[in-house]
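# nightly structure sweep
# worker-07 picked up a monomer target from the shared queue
# config: single-sequence mode, recycle default, output format = structure tokens
# input follows
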Amino acid sequence: MKIYVVQPGDSVDAIAASQNVSAQSIIYDNQLTYPYALAVGQALLLSQSPGSADGEGNAENEGNTPGSPGSELYPAYVGGYAYPFISRWVLNETLPYLSDLFIFSYGFTVEGELVPPQLDDTFMIDAAKSYGVAPILTLTPFGPDGRFSNYLISQVVNSETAKRQLIDNLTAQIRERGFEGVDIDFEYILPEDKFPFADFVREVRTAVNVLGYPVSVALAPKVSDTQSGLLYEGKDYALLGEAADYVLLMTYEWGYTYGPAMAVAPINKVRQVVEYALTKIPPEKIHLGIPNYGYDWTLPYVKDSSKATTIGNVEAVQIAIANGASIQFDEISQAPYFNYMQNGLTHEVWFEDVRSLTAKFSLVKEYRLRGMSYWQIMQLFRANWLLLGDTFAIL
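# output follows
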């Protein structure tokens, strides 16, 4: 695999000829649509057959070649979150690159009764197993308004009766439905529930481990013990790293729906979270969170008023092409972005491409983390999976 950055005047056929690859592979790998227009600055993933020439190009265009002859693929676990309304085609295209499929999500009541997704997720469990992928039950404390409820969390983790009922229901689902693990994704935990929550995770792990399966927990992206804010104060990295089999660092959403335009997962910020986590949790228990989406903001940003539109990574490039925008690459955040005008309004788009993903994959290898987990896999970004498969041996 090789990364090529589109230059002015480039075409698919010209790139194929100069880089000694087939035009069809460029189109397929990068999900280009007819008539196969390109955006200046667009990063293309090029598949080269063994023994083919490297082609011409400068160092920036050549990128890295993680799967080159003589190199060893780094072994890693790869998870992906998905809702039960995922396209079956997208699911089947993605499963070969996963170790775990996190089915999102199961709720619960204050009495500890499990609340399944509104749509039947049986096809996801069956599809995962057919590919040798572990289907994981994702547990979330959503209230009636569809938002994370710290009241619900507090009621259950502080009640031995409700806690035991919920754990019994989780293990019953594993036995009856074929789940192969539990992921605990609780957010906005009250500071006073920090210790009861860690105890809850530990007790779930004990029960699920008896069945032979792991328990993971999602962690807000902290950079210190004393980081303030409801998103952070109820989650103690050391306690939860010990309580769970492994953790997911939610290293995304710096750029988010209601915030100013910026990279969703800037590598400099991501690195800070990883380096803090490593002071509390062994690397072999850490998954790096990777976003599979971007945002389109309308400028100027107005606090409490602006709202970005969530877009897919392939869609972002299509927007750039449709509006004649050149894609830039921010070296500090290691992320692509561009601006365009529409209906008299200025837009700014940040998303992920194979360059930004290479930076994240390199971080996983640099710190020898257990692996990575994607939020979420609802839209296919084929170049990501091809690059991942060329970089890691999926466990």
